[in-house]
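cron nightly-structures :: item 1 of 1
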Amino acid sequence: MKKFSMAPLVLVFSLLLAACASTPPNPLVGAWAMTIQSPIGEMAVDINVNPDLTGQMTSADLGAASLDNILVSDQTVSFETTVDAQGQMLTLRFNGTLEGDQLRGNFDTDFGAIPASATRQ
């Protein structure tokens, strides 16, 4: 009967584990406090982005909505969400830049660009 050595299996497992550990997390993942400069005044929004790049935006004014099509490339960030704005469904498309714990950009809407900025929580 042949003896089975565990050394190759342990080596492969160790290499796989090291590869996973060396993958840095996406810099957008986490909780963000955002301020939107809407035409009717400043609006506070909480944004949460999960490691699988799903997320949610919540606001006392707009309720909760999922974030869709989250993309991060270098320092460029984009996502979109659809909110109920006083009975009208409005799609907001965010395009901005991420610099450390600061996120700045605009929500592009049917009514023009709306500035927004966020700080990591």
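cron nightly-structures :: done
The radius of gyration is 20 Å.
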